[in-house]
Amino acid sequence: MPRSRLGPLAIEAKLGDHPSQSSVWRAIHVQLHKAVAVKVFSSPFGATPEARTQFAAEWETLKTLQHPAIARCYGGGFEDKEAYLAYELVEGETLAAEIERRSRLPWESVLEVAEPIIAALCYLHERDIVYGMLGPDKILYAGLSPLLVDVRTDRIHSNFKTSRPPTPHEIAFRPPEWIDDPTSITHKSDLYSFGATLYFAITGRPPVQGDTIEEVTRNVREQTPTSAASLVLDCPVWFDKLIMQLLEKDPAKRPFGAPAVQLALAEVRRRSMSRTGVAEHASAGFSPLSVTDQKERDEARTLLGRELVDETKEKLPDATLWHDKSWFLIGVLIAMLAMLAWVAWPLNEDQMRKRAEDLLAQETQSALNQAKNNYLKPMINQFPDGEHTTWAEEQVDRIEMMQAEHALSVKMKRNLALKNEGERLFAEAEQFERFGDTSTALDKYRSMETLLGDDPKYRPYVNLARRQIAQIENRSFVKDEAATIIQEKLDEAEREHLRGNVVAARQIWYSIIELYGNNSNVGPLVLQAQQRLSASNTPAPESASPNPLKPPQ
């Protein structure tokens, strides 16, 4: 696509792990000065009026999808023989790139990725949308959060799709039914690709491999993947069992749906936090010491390489090798149990702090969650008067504050609904601070301490407010009254208007009206902003999120 413009978008550079193979570009909306990721489709023979109508209907549907783990679609358009979709630009690396950099991920980190992505699939499947081509290159990190990108409502039947043939690596993540008939895929096909992605993240290799497309295709149909737990010994048996069920060749043998997988992942997390899984993992196999029927006797005979003696028959001379004798096997079992008891023995306070510090130093979402759930909170509960309890409480507050701030920033960026009073009040105060009115922002942050300070549910937001209060006070100055700030903004708007930047000027006028419309002390200045806004050529922008493909209406 050797062009510099595409509709209202100025094209900059290709995106993706392998830009030469990518059809996704970084672009800037010229009027809104907003960066987006635009996916371009070339369809000289498929761009019929009917196909264009269907594609337009698809992007209208995509614009309605709002989920924290799904990158927003802003719309689309046509330009000559090309069509395009504009998505939220995610500035982060893909899961594929992270695995390439680290060889593989700890299973705890994979669980952190799996939970939001399966929630996104639940959201799509509830709306009868099959993602269709899930893989590690379709998951990007937005800060601490994994996001599903490149969502389509029907990528199989659409005339507007990538014409590049799939690579052997990409085929390894597709379910057998996709190989036989891509039009027959269902929501269970997404579950297979989801399981293949988890398998790849844990083991560092796809569930099936091959050097050519034909070899990989044959293996997808016929080859049973090696158990993830047999390749990565620290992978819990219950996580491995779920992944292998997702990779069943027969869709009917996979989990019933994404909600069932979501529940199974919650169970994996519960068990991982309980520390009871060590013994279960080690003892999951067959034990020759618990033989109760003929079938088990046959299995034991195969395992031990000798006949079991029937006590009702005449005793034969014992020619059993020493390492097969019962006393030796019992001794090995006792040693294993002792080792398990040592591994599962509760940590003392110093050990818990040391492990928590190691995780906190990583500063990743997975590590912070592990530190909080596995060490810091248990330390507080087990040692309420301990030497490190105060430190642990401070770290929990810091982690929850970071997580609350990140979740709020994601919601604000995607214009999602704020669900509690803490989010709403902090977002309002932060808006005043960004606008430059630190005096009003300071008042609102302090009001949060008064209104929410006694409610543990809002503790992270109160701590955020206290942090902002300290930062504002430490700057050694607080700007003058709101009237001074509004006047400066009005002057700025006039300068923008004289330069011809009508959109920028209107945004300033509208912000003044929205923020100070109920403040009688600055009523004349607000009225001035209203008059200037009314005098402009176009109506005021809506407070809801604008479509980046259209200037404010």
Q: What is the CATH class of the largest domain?
A: Mainly Alpha
Order of helices and strands: EEEEHEEHHEEHHHHHHHHHHHHHHHHHHH
**Percent range of helical residues:** 40-55%
Give the distance, in angstroms, between the N- and C-terminal Cα atoms: 31 Å
Biggest pleated-sheet summary: 6 strands, antiparallel
Cα gyration radius (Å): 30 Å
The overall average pLDDT, rounded, is 81
Number of helices: 22
Order of the strands making up the biggest sheet:
1-2-3-4-6-5
CATH-defined fold name of the largest domain: Transferase(Phosphotransferase), domain 1
Structure description:
It is a single chain. With 553 residues, the protein is α+β, with helices and mostly antiparallel strands. The chain folds into five domains: 5-88, Phosphorylase Kinase, domain 1 (2-Layer Sandwich); 99-279, Orthogonal Bundle (Transferase(Phosphotransferase), domain 1), CATH 1.10.510.10; 286-305 and 324-336, no CATH class; 352-417, no CATH class; 482-535, no CATH class. It has 22 helices and eight strands. The chain has helices at residues 49-63, 95-102, 107-126, 168-171, 176-180, 187-203, 213-222, 228-231, 237-246, 258-274, 277-282, 294-304, 326-344, 349-360, 365-382, 389-414, 421-435, 438-452, 459-474, 482-498, 502-516, 523-535, and strands at 5-6, 9-14, 24-29, 34-42, 73-79, 82-88, 139-142, 145-148. It has a six-stranded antiparallel sheet with strand order 1-2-3-4-6-5, with helices on one face. A two-stranded antiparallel ribbon has the order 7-8. Strand 7 (139-142) and strand 8 form a beta hairpin. Helix 17 (421-435) packs antiparallel against helix 18 and helix 20 (482-498) runs antiparallel to helix 21. The radius of gyration is 30 Å and the shape is flat. Residues 276-297, 299-316 and 542-553 have low confidence and may be disordered.
